[in-house]
Design a protein that fits this description.
Strand content: 35-45%
Distance between the termini: 25 Å
Number of helices: 2
Order of helices and strands: EEEEHEH
Number of strands: 5
Shape: globular
Structural class: alpha+beta
Helix content: 25-40%
Length: 72
């Protein structure tokens, strides 16, 4: 699967707040994701993240492009 900053992904396990939808804030060797319900942020190694993702719910190419421009 291809992931990009701004994607909303569904994880296999739900967060304690009851939501299993997360927004990708950073990608690379580690992923920073944010719960879409309570805003809690978590850093995960790529291997663990890819293992726990069920599916990509939405992809926002505009948000991904803005994140790339901010890096430079």
């Amino acid at each position: 699967m291809q992931f990009a900053v701004g994607d909303i992904v569904q994880m296999k396990k739900a967060h304690p707040c009851g939501c299993n939808e997360w927004e990708i804030l950073r990608e690379g060797m580690d992923f920073r994701i944010k719960c879409t319900k309570c805003g809690h942020m978590v850093m995960l190694p790529r291997v663990k993240f890819e293992k726990n993702v069920k599916k990509i719910l939405s992809h926002d190419p505009e948000k991904a492009r803005q994140a790339l421009e901010e890096d430079f």
